[in-house]
Specification:
Layout lengths: L1 H24 L15 E4 L2 E4 L4 E7 L2 E6 L5 H10 L7 E2 L4 E4 L5 H38 L5 H34 L2
Antiparallel strand pairs: 1-2, 3-4, 4-6, 5-6
Helix pairs in contact: 1-3, 1-4, 3-4
């Protein structure tokens, strides 16, 4: 019973780490990456649609992204969505494709990005702690219903804390790697 609960908890914690990694892909570093714009929502026939479903996104050069829409009529909507996404990018189109030059990051902008990463890492840690809190409550409920003993509760709490510590460390490592990418010139 405790083992199943801890496996479910680990699965939820892993999803939190994966969500953080996905989220951090959209934070700019000094080089072009299709992940930077692929989650930008574009108004397409009245429906907000992720850009990666509307176009092929490539990075032919370290400081340039190229977006080739499947439907040429969506070109202006894509361009507008990229400008409104608050990524600090200025796309230009030639009627068939959109070119997005990736400007070099200033020191000030890099520090701002590092702060943004720090906030997202902290949000992930809070999510992990909330998962721990929910699981801990379930363990206490099991003990209150006499499904597990006091010793089993203590062991479960210990295992839960080890699991939480491990995933918080993993979140810190993901954040540190991203910060290093941002500060790299």
């Amino acid at each position: 019973m405790i083992k199943d609960l801890l496996q479910e908890t680990e699965s939820r914690m892993l999803k939190t780490v994966e969500a953080l990694e996905t989220d951090l892909k959209s934070v700019r570093t000094g080089r072009a990456s299709p992940a930077l714009v692929e989650r930008v929502l574009v108004e397409y026939y009245g429906t907000p649609t992720p850009l990666n479903q509307l176009a092929v996104i490539s990075a032919p050069e370290p400081n340039l992204l190229v977006v080739r829409p499947y439907d040429p009529s969506s070109l202006s909507n894509i361009e507008k969505a990229i400008m409104q996404a608050d990524l600090g990018l200025n796309p230009g189109n030639d009627g068939r494709i959109i070119r997005i030059p990736i400007p070099r990051l200033t020191e000030e902008r890099r520090r701002e990005m590092v702060k943004r990463v720090g906030r997202r890492v902290e949000e992930a840690k809070v999510a992990l702690r909330n998962i721990r809190r929910d699981t801990l409550q379930e363990l206490r409920d099991y003990e209150g219903e006499s499904l597990i003993s006091e010793d089993e509760l203590a062991r479960g709490q210990e295992q839960l804390q080890e699991l939480t510590d491990r995933y918080i460390e993993e979140v810190d490592e993901v954040g540190a790697r991203k910060e290093q990418d941002i500060m790299e010139i």
